[in-house]
Amino acid sequence: MPATATPTVLTARALLLDMDGTLVNSDAVVERIWRRWAGRHGLDGDEVMRVVHGRQGHASMAVLLPGRPVEQNLADNARMLAEETADTDGVIEIPGASAFLAALDGLPHALVTSADVPLSTARMNAAGLPLPTVRVTAESVGASKPDPEGFLKGAAELGVDPADCIVFEDSGAGIAAGRSAGMRVVGVGPRAVPHEPDVAVPDLTRVRVEALPDGRIRLHIG
Questions:
Q1: In the chain, which stretches have pLDDT less than 50?
Q2: Helices (H) and strands (E) in the chain — how many of each?
Q3: What is the largest CA-CA distance in the chain?
Q4: What are phi and psi of 186, to 5 degrees?
Q5: Cβ–Cβ under 8 Å, residues 19 and 220
Q6: What is the pTM of this model?
Q7: With the C-alpha atoms ordered 93, 22, 120, 36, is the resulting torsion angle positive or negative?
Q8: Distance (Å, whole) CA 188 – CA 184
Q9: Looking at residue 2, what is its pLDDT?
Q10: Catalytic residues
Q11: Contact, 207 vs 94, CB < 8 A?
């Protein structure tokens, strides 16, 4: 995937970071577990994979199995989360993620993920990445992406106006959530491109962080 056509400079007071597909490549696990789930329910695996990225599991199930009781989706999701947490085979960092997070040390940023605490901890550890101090996980919100609640909560916890935040996301649901929150969005990886984020990069090696004297963050992208 090509990077953004020309080098871009963006300035913000805080960054809000998705995890899967943005900091961590967990595609191998997600494919294994969700394709098994698709098979159990007689669904097309490719169609399932087009839906699940970026959303909480029960929200994906509601899209894929409309009419199924919410309680059944929640119970199914709990089983899926346990499977995903136990399976970290093939989980690696997105290129450039370690250096990117190191550059953000001491600067306002938060993890905003559809994973719960055990899953996000397991995947970040498996990828060898530090967990940001501020984290908004599945337990923290009442609505899954593409609802903007998670990003708005991340901005509030950092004490930053949403308009002064930049979101890093890989999925259509996540990009829609960032936009709905009134934030600019940097798309990471090939899944992001069709959803037209403000800027697109193939991975985090194309992003350089500069801390400004007034506490703002300048991003050099491309």
A1: 1-3
A2: 8, 11
A3: 56
A4: -100, 120
A5: no
A6: 0.89
A7: negative
A8: 13
A9: 42
A10: 18, 20
A11: no
